[in-house]
Amino acid sequence: MNIRLARVTDARSIAEVQVRTWQATYRGILPDAYLDALSVDKREHAFRDGLMRASPEMWVAESDSGVVGWIAFGASRDADATATTGEIEAIYVLPEHWSTGTGRELWKVAQARLLARNFTTATLWVLEANERAARFYRAAGFTPEAGCRKAIHIGGQEVWEVRYACALAPCPFDAPRPANNEHWDFIGTLSISSLYLSKNQTYRGYSLLMFDAGHVEQIDRLRADEWAAFASDLFVANRAINRALRPDHMNVELLGNVIAHLHWHIVPRFRTDPRWGGPIWTTTPAEMPMTRIAESEQLALVEQIRGGLT
Ligand SMILES: [Zn+2]
């Protein structure tokens, strides 16, 4: 299998792959009359135009028998998109090449190309009834965006589309993550998030509660039950840290300015701390004081907080 940039002369093969894949995928979802009437000629014409403009960017997967799949992507066309939101406009693989990794290879190329073009997120719209596609996108790292759903009309029938999103750059807060690294030590896993003691102990007991169920950047992208679980985890974690540290005050913040992945900062505050009476945050992360405590002291703190989680 060879993956290469599509050429204008691929327009007909691309149209054929799309029509055959639509007829196999959407039987029972879209009207038969509409599927049977799909015209390779008309689609070839539209693809030729797109390929000549080189927008969207298209890549094909080619076997000895010719083009067996393709992917099209570019800047997001959605009204709420930022300049760094890319979009997978379409991905098709002929039914006889399903489950061979061809779709995954096409997505990997698109991911690298979108990153190279300075996009940080990829989104896509998929028919809600297309469960096979949803499984593929989830396995590829996409998660459905809560509330992003729209009705469209295809072949005279109303169908629903849902939007999925995927962070393109590897996110350091995505689960599974290392139990220990230069930034944190694992304390415990709660219902939908995990608690870590920060290596920076300028504020003794400073911990991070990171969301475990996928890469999510905003609270309003969570389902109500996920938010309830995350909030309940915060309560348990906050209580455990309070029990272990007995601080004079507690700061709980969800900011996401540096790493957008949902995570709570739980910061015990003491009258003796360097910024008592003010926020802990300074202008840039580089100006934040960094305090490391002895390894044994760090681990004792981990144990102490863990003991209070129940
Ligand atoms: Zn993430």
Biggest sheet: strand arrangement: 1-2-3-4-5-7-6
| Total number of domains | 2
Following the backbone from N to C, one meets helices and strands in this order, namely EHHHEEEHEHEEEEEHEEH
pLDDT under 50 segments (min length 5)?
none
Radius of gyration: 24 Å
Write down the CATH topology of the largest domain: Aminopeptidase
Sheet-strand content, in percent, reads 25-35%
Q: CATH homologous superfamily of the largest domain, by name?
A: Gcn5-related N-acetyltransferase (GNAT)
Q: In CATH's first tier, which class of the largest domain applies?
A: Alpha Beta
Number of strands: 12
Give me the secondary-structure category: alpha+beta
CA-CA gap between termini: 53 Å
What do these coordinates show?
The protein has 310 residues and is of the alpha+beta class. The protein folds into 2 domains: 166 residues, Aminopeptidase; 124 residues, HIT-like (HIT family, subunit A), CATH 3.30.428. 30% of the residues lie in helices and 29% in strands. The chain has 7 helices and 12 strands. The chain has a 7-stranded mixed β-sheet with strand order 1-2-3-4-5-7-6, sandwiched between helices. A 5-stranded antiparallel β-sheet has the order 8-9-10-12-11, covered by helices on one side. A hairpin with an 8-residue loop joins strand 9 and strand 10. The chain is elongated and about 75 Å long. The chain starts with a strand and ends with a helix. The model has no long low-confidence stretch (mean pLDDT 93). The structure holds zinc ion. Zinc ion binds next to loops.
